[in-house]
Amino acid sequence: MIKVEHLQKNFNKSIKKSGLAGTLRSFIRPEIEVFEAVKDLSFEIPKGQIFGFIGANGAGKSTTIKMLTGILTPTSGVCEIEGKNPQKNRKEYVKNIGVVFGQRTQLWWDLPLRETYKVLKEIYDIPDDQFNKRMLFLNEILELNDFIKDPVRTLSLGQRMRADIAASLLHNPKVLFLDEPTIGLDVSVKDNIRRAIIDINKEENTTIVLTTHDLTDIELLCSRIFMIDKGQEVFDGSISQLKNKFGRMHEISFQVANIEEVFKLNYTDFFENIDMEINGVNINICFDATKIHVTELLQFTLSRTQINDVSVKDGNIEEIIKRFFRKEIEND
Length: 332
Fold this sequence. Notes:
Residues 2-255 form the ABC transporter domain. It is built from eleven helices and 13 strands. By secondary structure, the protein is an alpha/beta fold.
């Protein structure tokens, strides 16, 4: 469905030196520096896959998405959806994609939501029977009926996000780009949005490209993760492969009997690649189970203090990725 080959995007930045002389020099003879926002990215996404596109701020995610949606033109390389080029086949291309940016809306602020959809119906030239059938499906999946008569400006953030997703799906696109679809939402609304995304993907086999900083979205939704850093690919695979590649992170929590003995538990002096958090009598430790065995930590703890409670669990993907971007995980 999506094909990306050797995608590159460079930006020219003018370098300004300090002081009045530097300002004049940059005005008369500017010094230009080339910044590589995206560096030689290549990947393919098959039809119906939910593709998690992740990375730290400034990694190049938004630049890549803007090239895939036709907003930016690549410096070099190729990106296509069903053989169509986003920049050269603009009108044909946009008929096959839907885009939702979490911080921006495509809805008309003062129009009732129902009227907004009617405007979009005319823009996309959707026949009446298809539009009515589509609205029934979207109402069922996204539960729009409770607020479909309300002006967009009166909608809550969660309602507006559901309304935006529906707007992007009115023309039945083959590919849906979701940029931070759950940002700023409370837990219950996030769950509703996630269920809707799963249902849309299941019912219509829609290919979904998801960028998010909420890694619970990634764990619950994505069958594949593509991670970039400084514009370059650093990982492409499943969540289980990510955990196997960058370490089996585990968490162990202790509740000590005597808060005054917490200082004796100086784990970082004896173990490498370990994170420790202290909250009163509660101690939480995150460690790489391929390098440290849980029995070692238990023996170390019991030899120094008495504990009232202990629990062990697998660490989540968020901790793995945090540690990766802090350069605390060694590559294989």
